[in-house]
Amino acid sequence: MRFRVIDTGLRDARRQIAFDQALIEARQSGRIPDTIRFLRFPPSALVGRHQAVSHEIRLEHCRTHGIGIARRITGGGAIYFDEGQLGWELVFHRSTLGISSLADLTREICEAAAAGLSRLGVDARYRPRNDIEVGGRKISGTGGFFDGDTLFYQGTVLIDMNPADMVAALNVPAAKLARRALDSAAQRVVTLHELLGAAPAMEVVQEALLAGFAERLGISPVRGAITAEEETLAARLHDEEIGTEDFVMEIDDPGADADVLSGSQTGAGGTITVHLRLEGARRERIREVLITGDFFVTPPRTIFDLEAALRNVAVVEAGATIERFFAQAKTGLLTVTPGDFRAAFEAALQSEGTKLTL
Question: Which residues in 268-284 are b (16+ Cβ under 10 Å) and which e?
């Protein structure tokens, strides 16, 4: 199974993310083959698809120091990226590896990436559900989703980075650190430079990853070229959506208004926060709902469809609506469960004294 390998080099964060979407659309239409891409960013703070920007990023610091701000098309938490890190991603048809489960593919891809990094002389291990660690410290975070029959899966490698830069750019929740028994986000990560005493060249890390993918996934990576069509599509997606302030700031500070009820559920798979506006003489009906957090779901529009399903629903029926939605929808919940969404709704409604029905 041949995979084309391309490298888009160092580009503005929003343009790199627009290229992600271009790859997905081009693969869906059969215009490109299964592909592995390497990419790099200038100093950038990236929020997950469903995260609130102001909650996750220190906006004033980033703007003052010229750090780019972008929204990924994948879920998960906020990350800091700079030139000392390498991004990698795979875009391929669901049938290519003969594995249909997102959880199983996550394990296989992460174990392959860990095997590749281990070739550099470090003991890299996959940690469920989507991290790669060395000695209990993260060297690679990953995430992805199915969009129809196309899988998009991406990760990072911390080659050389000053953890203080990451801490200064991001608001790392105390609850997330507490789950890891850490005092600061800097303790959670480790770089190849720290482990090896020197930072290996980007090309060396790329070749190690490709060897791991080839060995563990049974594929044949072959260096190829970026097409003019991909560049054109990525530029259009950037200019019309992904590169715009409307897209990046789409979710900013949803709980700021006085009439919004907010509540969260935090578990091993991440945090879900529900923001509600109620209506009716007794505030018994949901007018608007917004769900934010660092979770992973597939397909990408799952959360938007759930929000739509809950609009105009009686508050007491919200629990049943959530359960019915996930029972009927063809979704993949990599890090969370329907019960986690229900618990977040219950937390948001706690101040109203309302309980969700089964």
Answer: ebbbbbbbbbbeeeebe
Give the Cα separation of 125 and 139 in Å (integer): 10
Residue listed under structure tokens 């629990």: 319
Going residue by residue through the chain, which has 358 residues, state the pLDDT in tens, using 9 for 90 and above. Answer: 999 999 999 999 999 999 999 999 999 999 999 999 999 999 999 999 999 999 999 999 999 999 999 999 999 899 999 999 999 999 999 999 999 888 899 999 999 999 999 999 999 999 988 899 999 999 999 999 999 899 999 999 999 998 889 989 999 755 554 444 434 556 788 999 999 999 999 999 999 999 999 999 999 999 999 999 999 999 999 999 999 999 999 999 898 888 899 999 998 778 999 999 999 988 899 999 999 999 888 888 999 999 999 999 999 999 999 999 999 988 887 778 899 999 999 999 886 555 554 3
CB atoms within 10 A of CB 7: 17
Distance of CA 4 to the CA centre of its chain: 23
What's 244's DSSP letter?
Answer: S
Residue 116 Cα distances to 199, 288, 337, 340, angstroms:
16, 46, 31, 34
**pTM of the predicted model as reported, rounded to 2 decimal places:** 0.89
Q: Give the number of other Cβ atoms within 10 Å of residue 128's Cβ.
A: 13
Domains along the chain?
Answer: 2-248 (3.30.930.10), 261-352 (3.30.390.50)
Name which of 119, 164, 168, 172 is nearest 141 in CA terms: 172
Burial class (CB in 10 A: 0-12, 13-18, 19+), 259: exposed
Task: Spell out the residues 6+ positions from residue 249 whose beta carbon is closer than 8 angstroms to its own.
Answer: 53
